[in-house]
């Protein structure tokens, strides 16, 4: 449901990407379909990360790495695959299409499909991409990756001259790296010949070719995707083009069993006979299973790091899963009571001064985390992050936070709730929309089941109380926290009650890999749950999409880091993976949240 996401130094990166593009264009030797599948691999789902949506055209409520990369992607991979040797770069070997070819002064891109088939033997064609595009365009505002003005709004025309070729013309020329990594990366072929229907009993047609028909098809498929109990039996979901198909699924827990798709003719055909994704409600239960040897691919909870040597003796390798993303807690700018407070830059700056990231990294994450000081990841090392962001604009300082509050009309009450005593919009007053007597008293709901998240929230509550900012903590499943992350709808009251949310993460830059942040910080973006909106931010985001050179990214990220549109927090390793030495091909791990590629795994045992 949301990553990051979506320039001399950047020019160097794009040149390197171009080299990777050329390197990935070679043909892949054919592999016999008579593969000898061997063994079963058990993989641990993280607490709260059970998949709950199978249809690969998802709303914000289902826009999450566990749905997209750990579940859907095994069956319905994207047109372009990103991830190579642990880095978030284009991988043409695994992609369903060759490199895009630009023409028309950079406005038109031509894409040529490889010769692939669906699991029922039907060829994968551009009609399957047209089907996805038609459904997307008909109901784009429900799409979790939608940003007004970007894809698909910036498309002027689409042509499908053959079964293997399509041409997309955009409304203007864009940065080619951004266009590939953040726009074309979103396309996912869907089996039009099997899914273009408006009911389970009705015939397959060409309904998607009218807007009304496309909406009806979309609504039908979403309704089927919400019926989790039929995931392994519904004929719709049996037609796949990925290396795996779903053979069993428990709707109550997310327990999933995948077996090879025997018709898969892409790269890295499966050699494992079965992959089981095992759900857990908490870290303790997972570690008990890992210690007993019941898992091939699990993780060591941070609090259990003293058991590292024991796990090595049991035949496991520890490998921190480092992600291309940032971590933050959104705040609700649309809340009718607290929204006016969040809209004050000085208050956001004061709160950021109270997030002691170095201490959290040392004491809570035991060193397996990187600080987040702005919209571009600091780790893994990359050419995008600026010196301003890397050097931390708001270092931990209770004194600095207190000065900011006092200078803007608040009577600071440590271990209580500070009170606005100088209402008004002048520079030395509390700010527009904040009444006299208003209190700094907020709610924060965080994801259950992860000890480090709970410890971090307690530390945050304690630090905030030092300057009289009360934080009332509550706990809910991660899926519930994500579903609650919507702006205020005053007609229904939906989204109007929350202040801060922490679903146990932030944003992984996928399915948008270029860290320009449009999907999370642009006005009206679907993955901007707090509805932060700033015209200058939008202008700087647009510049990173259209203009080459290093300075546009530097200007954008420095501005957003300074603005604190969300509360920046440490980005831990997704997990400290413990991988059986009998399991080969799982390291290096992808830089993308919850992405697994079991088609590249092999087992030494039977």
What strand order characterises the main sheet?
1-10-9-8
Quote the beta fraction.
Answer: 15-25%
Rg from Cα? 24 Å
CA distance, first residue to last residue: 37 Å
Which structural class best describes the helix and strand composition? alpha+beta
Report what the structure shows.
- Helix 3 (126-138) packs across helix 6 (211-225) and helix 17 (535-546) packs antiparallel against helix 18.
- The chain is of the alpha+beta class and 606 residues long.
- Helix content is 28%, strand content 17%.
- The protein folds into 2 domains: 8-27 and 50-229, Dipeptide-binding Protein, domain 1 (Alpha-Beta Complex), CATH 3.90.76.10; 325-571, Dipeptide-binding Protein, domain 3 (Roll).
- Strand 17, helix 14 and strand 18 (470-476) form a beta-alpha-beta unit.
- It has 18 helices and 25 strands.
- The strands form 9 sheets. Strands 1-10-9-8 form a 4-stranded mixed β-sheet, with no helix packed on it. A 4-stranded antiparallel β-sheet has the order 4-5-7-6, with no helix packed on it. Strands 11-23-12 form a 3-stranded antiparallel β-sheet.
